[in-house]
UniProtKB/TrEMBL annotation:
Alphabetized PROSITE patterns for the sequence: S1
Name of the protein described by the UniProt record: rRNA biogenesis protein RRP5
S1 motif domain sequence ranges: 138-221, 237-303, 326-396, 412-472, 503-570, 590-659, 674-746, 766-835, 879-943, 1069-1143, 1167-1238, 1269-1343, 1377-1446, 1467-1537
Keyword Repeat set for record: yes
Record key words, sorted: Nucleus, Repeat, Ribonucleoprotein, Ribosome biogenesis, rRNA processing
TM region(s), chain numbering: none
Highest taxon of the lineage: Eukaryota
Disordered: region residues: 1-76, 1552-1571, 1628-1656
Length: 1936
């Protein structure tokens, strides 16, 4: 693309060279394969690739306008020669032989090279096109973002190329520095897919995967794209791209890539306002609006519409560097090329458009006809190559409008019916794919058309034909799909990455092999990686040998993450038929699958499955032999079959096992931690001993070396002598590791196996437990017990001397005694102390185990020799006198030999010679002191004291000596403290003699469990030591007397060294001096003697348990005198050994108490008062300790009477509190008592209390302590339905019933409203009755003023209108005419029963329910309603009471009523409450009277009201004017128009407060309380609808209908059906007062006419009230002649005839009426038809057929819709459900556009069922016109509220309010319905939403007013003030 086309060099010798090239040289339409490189044979030498050219004068060879040094003739000759060569090559292509090597198409090369550098003369044949061959660094391209990643962007470039932009290249450095380092997702928040961007090529990297397709690295930096831009070059109207550099208050500063100028964009710009948040670094495109050259600022406008239409102006002297991709230009067609169009633009430039960028996306073969020369078009620059000055343009309609083409297809999609638009000979096909929503162009290359080579494409495919194509890819910039027609590709299951699934077996071709693995390609073209470890089952050194490029192999897909697919060629995985595990959710327990090992640790193997799923197989599940290393059996990469044992998908954990079929053992037979088993040695390893165990479920176990013995030296010695086959009779199961047991042979653990804890809950504070050290660190030691239960001993708690190193003091595996300091169950941490001062041994187990193991080792050493050899030791018993011969004298003593045992030697130290002089060879008699069987050595003594008894005589014989020794030991007692003398000092123990016991020989260890590695104390022969006897000689002690040195506990016994010397044998009854070591809430811990611990229970401090805090006078360290009262229980022996007492009477008693103290009898009598201390409190019980062993329970409801105290139950009884109570029952076996706090007298039948002493302690049901008149605490257990009252719990299993009449002090409506289950109450017991079967029935009352007169407070609460009503208890208290109150018990067809008291019911006959007619007794008198009536009769014997609700006497009432009527005068203003709402008016009860007046609908308001119920509600206070008083008929006519009320100035009304109180209490005024009328439902409303112009006539008929009810029972409710069309609009009129004056003027005439009509109605009403109704046929004839058009009169006439039983006459009157009534009076005629329907329905034969005939006739004379509705009303009223449903089905089809009809359908469904309404509503909304939707939905919602499901009604209102939030009429209706339901919280929440709307002031005023009225009638002063305050806030905010 350059200026006019020039040849760069036109010398003739070049022309000659070209002519000699034999056709091989390139011509003008052919470029070399190495584009941009100069060729000697080239006619044109393009410039070498250079950086972006900045100035035009760098091209000096030709002027901008073009030019050449060749003459015209020379140029023509060159062109002719080139054309001849090209044609020859084309012929050669056609003659190419099949199977021969394909010759590279020259045309392809022509398209591959770029031109534009001064070409003139003959035009090129092909348009410029970007390919991998000709793209070069420095080239500017227009692209579209196709992917946005965190670190880079993927750009779709022209020609389907793909470029990458790294994050540093996406933003200019100046802008990047403004972005905070903390911000993440920098690229995704600033760029989006589909965004068009200009970019510049940075470099090309060779892609190893695809040769010839380099990676294209791009930059979006404006500093490169706008290089050379100056402020002078920028013109107004130019489109520029800029970065947002910073965000200011009023706009954004912009960066154009040049430091010399900047930009600014205002925030109120249209494009910026509506878009998402603008961020620093974001690219914005805008039009230059204004240039401030002084401040060097360009002001941009970012209006998208303007930007897309802005064309670059033809500027003088514009250089190629100022051209930017994406710039729109006006261009002119210069010529058409073979594959595009050449355009000229901006005067100096030419560019080409290739075939894929034309205006039409589907150019056919005649596309050139659309581009005539000089045709003007708008185009955008697609690319610019500064090196060749080539420019590409686009005419694509989407790109021209600055939008990326849409993408409606995805790779892999198959389209069966794609149309061939164009066939490009030798190249491919252009198709039109029928994608949705619009079709997409697709191009299929000739190589993708068929499996075999296609020679003549145009013959095989014709334009217009249809083919089946599969989408290969998509060129995002062109909006062009690439396709393939090959059959193999269409059928290939793997075509795109999305088709690849983990576990899929595929065949793929190897395309590259490297050190990291092989790259393979599926048949569909998708590539995958086979890692080197997955290329073979085993590791291969040279992958390239097996994997040859081009080979096809079978693989299995391992995973596919994003677009990276990995496969395996491992044979086991590929051929595996087991299930595929590709997600953690698929990991089900027991699943067996294949995986491969990724890592091997000592504790197990990590296994990988498909899609990155990983699991772990612990060592125990690897199937290894004990002691075997996993790495020797398995290797990384090995495929293994494994079984899932457990999985946690949420935490992505899978536990595996290589053992596919585990052995199953029942839980009962399973070996548990801490159990003892036997085992046989299998083999000895370096780490321990492997044994065969005798346990179910396990075959082998391991004994670690350190667990072979408690002594360090013995463990290694034992291991050295063990041989396979040796049997361990007792081993402790220390831990279970899978199928392997970890065992211990330590006797310290085995002997205390039952006490070893395996769980933290089994550990108790301050106890000493055996364990072993499992780890040592600098800061402390880890001590392990059973399993993995581990404690930690900090450094300062490990040793008494803090200076020693722990590693020098302890060793791993050492047996230790640990003192529990803390056990935190929440954190699972255990802190222990290993200090010898607190963990010293209290027995001789340490040395006992030493001697036993020593003997065992000796036996094992001599196992190879004959067993008789071991018998020598039998003759060397300890203390025996033996004869021997002095064999040798040494420095330390003499050696003695024995004649009988040649290999056994004795040794006598110098100290043991006792001063005797012996000679070698002499015979001696010596005492055996010690025997070392392993060394076959005996220690002897010649000291004379061993031979002399206390009597001074010498022993003459050995038998006497033995006897003396036995007697000496017999004198010793266990735990006796003795003085001993050191005879021999051994390495690990001392041989001692006890002089005070005939020099008995004993043995004591010099170290303890915890001090094995501590420095030993130095002992000398003859040294005197203090020791305690721990074990007498026995086989378990190897026949030795075992002692314990008191120096072992010197650290703790320094203060009591004197006491330690005393005799230390204790028994029950002994007095001891003890030191307090710990004070707890319920016990004192003490220590005494040597290592003895005891406790004093809280009940053992004082004689009578009267002190509140018995331990307050004691302190830790204090010494006290206590008496041992018993041994501790077995479960407590680990904490203490003795139970002590500090009671004064115990200390002063005799010491000879003995075992009497050990047992406690439960010797308590019923009712006895006792005291104890609280030791536990749960939710229901207080547990009290009475003594050490006797406990008591106090039930929650026995602890108090007041509910407030019962609520604080647990707080009132802290642990340690003294509690006094009375014994209710005893359980001697469990030593358990039941207490109650208050004293009680046993009820009859329990006077002797014998049956209260029961074994099972379940005597609570009898309620022995409950008596009539008692006040008890209770808890509501259940609220019984109806008038059942309450079920109240008063004991653990004792319940009482509160009668409905006993709930409140005085009778109130709904007495249950204040109670809920679980509530505490204070009850009075009214009656207790016990049946023979043992059941107890208790009657309770929540009333405490049971004398019949309510207390003052209760009277205030109830505020009843009948304070004189006395609460009746006995029937004798009733008398006729007495006023009584009661609740409705049940209602029947004959009347109802009411509750007068707990034992008295009364009946009310139906006729006595009201002065008036009761239409629906079940509705008016629901169960539980409070009634006030008068007693009619009382029958005390039969206990029958009859009550009436009528006022006192009919005649008296009539008289009173008449008198009351006389007090009322026409024109009076009265106040009252609405009693009933009918469609024709309101019935109003006049305050302070029992009179009811009617306010007709026409007198309600000056404006027309369509729906009364939405405006008024029953119980509402109103003010009205008396219009008429008819004393004769007792009728009062009222009016409520504003004009009436305003005319009167002196109106006296009762206070608002009084009326409100009255209505709150009774729901109606005083004298009308006995009769309640239900408000009309919407159905009732619908039955009174007036339509048409003459609808007012019907109002007259309605007024007259009140005069009497004719026998025909033709209710005018059936005259017409409801028209609620105006329901919403009427509310709107009520709210919207801001109407224009024109509308008011239009309404005035209508209003006047309406008022005149209402005057006529009133006159008619008065006339009918004054005149009597006709009573003969003649009188009716006169009346119909005077009012021939009045349907009311005709219907009365028909009714009269029916009352005379003349049906035919009634029919004839109906026919006359239909003939006589004027044809214009359509509604009057309709009324007659309705009456006719009712007549035939009642008297027709058959009725259904007769009605149908009348109906067919009526359809001809009246509006069919009205007739249908009239018939429907009649069917509904007479409950003909089948006919009703059939008619409605016809109507919704016939009148599907009628809202009224659909509403009737909805109403009908709601009557039948409340659940099937939604389908009808959906049908209706589809059928009804749009403008009727609001009305239909709102009225359906009202129906739901009134007779359906209110929640559905709410949903409907919420739905339309979301769409029309400012329709206050809808808000008003919604609020009215919620107010009617009465849920205060919902109503107030709805009001709050409504007043928060942004509406016109008048509408808001209406909402606030409505809210205020509601709070005035339902809220308190605080709520009213709150609404007023919110209204004021609204006003203030509006004014502000």
């Amino acid at each position: 693309m350059g200026a006019k086309k020039n040849f760069k060099d036109g010398e003739k010798k070049q022309k000659k060279k070209m002519s000699k090239s034999n056709g091989d040289g390139p011509n003008i339409n052919k470029a070399s394969k190495q584009s941009f490189k100069p060729s000697n044979d080239a006619v044109f030498k393009p410039k070498p690739q250079q950086p972006l050219q900045l100035e035009d004068d760098e091209v000096p060879d030709f002027p901008r306008g073009g030019g050449s040094s060749l003459s015209q003739q020379e140029r023509e000759e060159i062109y002719a020669e080139v054309d001849a060569e090209f044609e020859a090559e084309q012929r050669g292509l056609k003659k190419r032989k099949k199977g021969g090597k394909r010759v590279t198409r020259k045309a392809d090369d022509d398209i591959g090279s770029l031109f534009g550098d001064g070409i003139t003369g003959k035009l090129p044949r092909f348009a410029n096109k970007i390919t991998f061959k000709n793209i070069s660094p420095g080239m500017k391209l227009w692209g579209v973002i196709s992917e946005v990643n965190e670190k880079d962007l993927v750009i779709g470039l022209p020609g389907g190329l793909r470029g990458l932009v790294r994050m540093p290249d996406a933003l200019d450095p100046d802008v990047k520095s403004e972005i905070t380092d903390m911000e993440s997702n920098i690229l995704p928040s600033r760029f989006h897919v589909g965004q068009l961007v200009s970019c510049i090529v940075l470099r090309l990297d060779d892609d190893k995967k695809e040769i010839g397709k380099p990676k294209i690295w791009l930059s979006l930096r404006l500093s490169l794209l706008h290089k050379g831009f100056t402020l002078d070059a920028v013109q107004e109207g130019m489109v520029l791209t800029a970065y947002v550099k910073s965000i200011e208050d009023h706009g954004y500063t912009l960066h154009f890539g040049s430091p010399s100028f900047s930009g600014f964009l205002l925030k109120n710009d249209q494009a910026v306002c509506g878009e998402i948040e603008v961020k620093i670094g974001q690219l914005l495109q805008g039009v230059v609006g204004r240039i401030d050259k002084v401040h060097k600022v360009i002001y941009l406008s970012c209006d998208l519409d303007t930007v897309s239409k802005c064309v670059t102006k033809d500027l003088k002297g514009i250089s190629i560097d100022l051209l930017v991709p994406g710039m729109m230009v006006n261009a002119r067609v210069q010529s058409t090329l073979e594959n595009g169009v050449m355009l000229s633009f901006l005067t100096y430039f030419t560019g080409t458009v290739d075939l894929f960028h034309l205006q039409n996306s589907y150019p056919n073969s005649h596309w050139k006809d659309d581009y005539n020369k000089n045709k003007k078009v708008n185009a955008r620059i697609l690319f610019i190559d500064p090196s060749t000055r080539a420019i590409g343009l686009t005419l694509n309609s989407h790109l021209v409008h600055n939008k990326a083409p849409p993408s409606h297809v995805k790779s892999g999609d198959i389209y069966d019916d794609s149309k061939v638009v164009r066939v490009d000979k030798g190249w491919g096909l252009l198709l039109e794919i029928q994608s949705i929503p619009v079709s997409t162009p697709a191009y299929v290359s000739i190589s993708d058309v068929a499996e075999e080579e296609v020679r003549k494409l145009e013959k095989k495919f014709k334009e217009g034909s249809h083919v089946r194509v599969r989408v290969l890819g998509f060129r995002h910039l062109e909006g062009l799909a690439t396709g393939i027609l090959k059959a193999g590709a269409l059928e290939d299951p793997v075509f795109t990455h999305s088709d690849v699934k983990p576990g899929m077996v595929v065949r793929a071709k190897i395309i590259a092999v490297d050190s990291f693995g092989a790259i393979v390609q599926f048949p569909g073209g998708v590539k995958a990686l086979c890692p080197v470890q997955h290329m073979s089952e085993f590791e291969i050194a040279k992958p390239g040998k097996k994997f040859k490029v081009g080979a096809e192999l079978v693989f299995r897909v391992l995973g596919c993450k994003s677009k990276r697919i990995t496969v395996t060629h491992k044979k086991t995985l590929v051929k595996s038929k087991l299930g595929i595990l590709s997600s953690y959710a698929d990991a089900t327990d027991g699943l067996i699958t294949h995986g491969w090992i990724t890592k091997i640790e000592k504790h197990g193997c990590f296994i990988r499955f498909y899609n990155g799923v990983q699991g772990f197989a612990p060592r125990s599940e690897l199937g290894l032999e004990p002691g075997c290393d996993p790495s020797t059996m398995y290797h990384v990469g090995q495929v293994v079959k494994c079984r899932i044992t457990s999985s946690l998908p949420a935490s992505r954990r899978i536990n595996l096992s290589f053992i596919i079929k585990p052995s199953r053992v029942s839980e009962e037979d399973m070996v548990k931690l801490g159990s003892l088993i036997s085992a046989v040695v299998d083999r000895v390893t370096t780490n321990g001993v492997i044994v065969y165990v005798n346990a179910k479920g396990y075959s082998k176990g391991t004994i670690p070396t350190e667990h072979l013995a408690d002594h360090h030296g013995h463990a290694t010695l034992m291991k050295s002598v063990l041989k396979p086959g040796y049997e361990f009779d007792r081993l402790l199961v220390l831990d279970i590791s899978g199928s392997n047991l970890v065992l211990s042979a330590k006797l310290s653990l085995i002997n205390l196996a039952e006490q070893l804890p395996s769980d933290i809950s089994q550990i108790h504070h301050n106890t000493v437990i055996h364990g072993y050290i499992c780890n040592l660190i600098e800061t402390g030691c880890f001590v392990r017990f059973l399993g993995r239960l581990t404690g930690f001993s900090p450094r300062n708690k490990a040793t008494d001397d803090q200076r020693v190193e722990l590693s020098e003091s302890f060793y791993i595996g050492q047996s230790v005694r640990s003192n529990i300091l803390d056990a935190n169950t929440e954190s699972g941490r255990i802190t222990v102390s290993l200090k010898q001062s607190s963990c010293f041994s209290t027995d001789a187990s340490f040395i006992q185990e030493y001697f036993l193991l020593d003997e065992k080792i000796a036996n094992l050493q001599l196992l190879d020799t004959e067993g008789s050899e071991l018998k020598w030791a039998e003759g060397f018993s300890i203390g025996n006198v033996i004869e021997g011969k002095i064999q040798e004298a040494k420095d330390v003593g003499v050696v003695v030999s024995f004649e009988k045992y040649r290999d056994v030697f004795g040794f006598i130290t110098h100290y043991q010679l006792g001063g005797a002089i012996v000679e070698i060879g002499s015979c001696v008699r010596a005492i055996v002191l010690d025997v070392a069987k392993a060394e076959r050595l005996v220690d002897l003594s010649l000291k004379p004291e061993f031979f002399v008894d206390h009597r001074g005589g010498s022993s003459k014989s050995q038998s006497q000596k033995k006897k003396r020794k036995r007697e000496a030991c017999k004198d010793l007692e266990v735990h006796q403290t003795v003085n001993a003398i050191v005879e021999i000092v051994k390495e690990n123990y001392l041989v001692l003699s006890v002089p005070e016991c005939n020099y008995a020989i004993g043995y004591a260890s010099v170290s303890d469990y915890n001090t094995q590695k501590f420095p030993r104390n130095q002992f000398l022969n003859g040294q005197s030591v203090i020791a305690t006897v721990m074990a007498l000689p026995s086989p378990s002690t190897s026949g030795r007397l075992l002692l314990l040195l008191n120096s072992m506990s010197e650290a703790t016994e320094t203060s009591s060294s004197k006491r330690a010397k005393k005799k230390s044998s204790y028994k029950v009854g002994s007095l001891v001096q003890a030191e307090i070591t710990e004070i707890k809430s319920l016990e004192l811990k003490l220590k005494f003697g040597i290592g003895f611990h005891g406790r004093v229970h809280i009940t053992e401090v004082n004689d009578d348990n009267v002190l509140e805090d018995p331990f307050s006078n004691f302190r830790i360290g204090q010494t006290v005198t206590a008496r041992i009262v018993s041994k501790a229980n077995r479960s407590d022996k680990r904490n203490y050994q003795w139970e002590l007492s500090l009671k004064p009477k115990m200390l002063t008693g005799s010491s000879d108490i003995g075992d009497k103290l050990t047992t406690e009898d439960v010797d308590f009598s019923i009712g006895q008062c006792i005291t104890g201390y609280v030791f536990k409190v749960d939710s229901e019980w207080v547990w009290v300790a009475i003594s050490r062993d006797v406990r008591a329970q106090l039930f929650i409801l026995d602890s108090a009477r007041e509910p407030s105290e019962l609520k604080e139950f647990q707080k009132r009884f802290p642990v340690g509190k003294a509690v006094s109570g009375h014994v209710l029952s005893t359980n001697k076996e469990k030593k358990l008592l039941r207490l109650v706090l208050s004293p009680f007298a046993l009820s009859k039948g329990h006077a002797n209390g014998e049956d209260l002493e029961v074994d099972n302690h379940v005597n609570e049901k009898c309620g022995a302590h409950i008596n009539e008149g008692d006040i008890v605490g209770g808890r509501v257990s259940k609220i019984l339905s109806g008038v059942g009252g309450l079920l109240v719990q008063i004991g653990p299993q004792l319940y009482g019933r509160v009668h409905y009449m006993e709930l409140t002090e005085s009778l109130v409506p709904d007495p249950l409203s204040g109670y809920h289950e679980g509530q505490f109450v204070k009850c009075k017991v009214l009656e207790v009755s016990r049946s023979v079967k043992g059941t107890t029935h208790v009657d309770l009352s929540l009333r405490f003023s049971l004398d019949g007169t309510p207390s003052q407070s209760s009277a205030e609460i109830s505020n009843t209108l009948h304070p004189a009503c006395k609460h009746v208890e006995q029937i004798e208290e009733l008398h006729p005419n007495m006023v009584v109150q009661g609740y409705v018990k049940n209602i029947t067809s004959k009347g109802c029963f009411i509750l007068l008291s707990r034992k008295i019911d009364a009946k009310i006959l139906l006729s006595n329910l009201s002065d008036g007619f009761v239409d629906n007794p079940e509705k008016d008198f629901p169960v539980g309603k409070l009634l006030v009536g008068r007693v009619l009769s009382v029958e005390p014997l039969s206990k029958r009471v009859e009550v009436t609700l009528k006022t006192l006497g009919a005649s008296r009432a009539q008289k009173s009523e008449t008198n009351d009527l006389r007090t009322l005068h026409m024109g009076d203003i009265i106040s009252g409450r609405i009693k009933r709402i009918e469609s024709y008016g309101l019935f109003i009860t006049i305050d302070n009277t029992n009179l009811v007046g009617l306010c007709h609908v026409s007198e309600l308001s000056s404006d027309h009201i369509d729906n009364i119920e939405t405006k008024y509600r029953v119980g509402e206070s109103v003010t009205a004017k008396i219009l008429k008083v008819d004393e004769q008929r007792h009728r009062i006519s009222l009016g409520m128009k504003n004009a009436y009320i305003e005319d009167s100035d002196d109106i006296e009304l009762p206070s608002k407060q009084e009326s409100d109180e009255a209505i709150r209490e009774n729901g109606s005024s005083d004298d009308t309380r006995l009769v309640t009328f239900p408000g009309s439902s919407l159905i009732g409303l619908q039955n009174m609808d007036i339509e048409g112009e003459n609808g007012d006539c019907l109002v007259l008929a309605q007024v007259e209908s009140r005069a009497s009810i004719p026998p025909l029972e033709v209710s005018l409710e059936d005259i017409d059906q409801p028209d609620m069309d105006n329901l919403v609009s009427s509310n709107q009129e009520q709210i919207d007062e801001a109407d224009t004056m024109n509308e008011k003027n239009k309404r005035r005439p209508k209003k006047k006419a309406k008022e005149e009509r209402e005057q006529e109605i009133r006159a008619a009403e008065e006339r009918l009230l004054e005149n009597d109704i006709p009573r003969t046929a003649d009188e009716f004839e006169k009346l119909v002649r005077s009012s021939p058009n009045s349907s009311f009169v005709w219907i009365k006439y028909m009714a009269f005839m029916l009352s005379m039983a003349d049906v035919e006459k009634a029919r004839s009157i109906a026919e006359r009426a239909l003939q006589i009534i004027n044809i214009r009076e359509e509604n009057e005629k309709l009324n007659i038809w309705v009456a006719y329907f009712n007549l035939e329905n009642e008297y027709g034969n058959p009725p259904e057929e007769a009605v149908r005939k009348v109906f067919q006739r009526a359809l001809q004379y009246n509006d069919p819709k009205k007739v249908h509705l009239a018939l429907l009303g009649m069917y509904e009223r007479t409950e003909q459900h089948k006919l009703t449903d059939e008619l409605l089905d016809k109507m919704v089809k016939k009148y599907k556009h009628s809202c009224k009809v659909w509403l009737r359908r909805v109403q009908r469904i709601l009557k039948q069922t409340k659940d099937a309404i939604q389908p009808v509503v959906n049908r209706a909304l589809l059928s009804l016109p749009r403008h009727k939707h609001i009305k239909f939905i709102s009225q359906t919602a009202i129906l739901e509220f009134k007779c359906g499901v209110p929640d559905r009604g709410r949903s409907m209102f919420e739905g339309i309010l979301r769409e029309y939030p400012k329709r206050t009429d809808l808000w008003s209706i919604y609020l009215d319905q919620e107010i009617r339901l009465g849920d205060v919280d919902v109503i107030r929440a709805l009001f709050e939403r409504a007043i928060s709307l942004s509406l016109p002031t008048k509408k808001m005023k209406f909402l606030f007013k409505k809210y205020l009225e509601y709070e005035k009638s339902h809220g308190d002063e605080e709520r009213i003030e709150s609404v007023k305050r919110k209204a004021m806030e609204y006003v203030e905010s509006t004014l502000a």
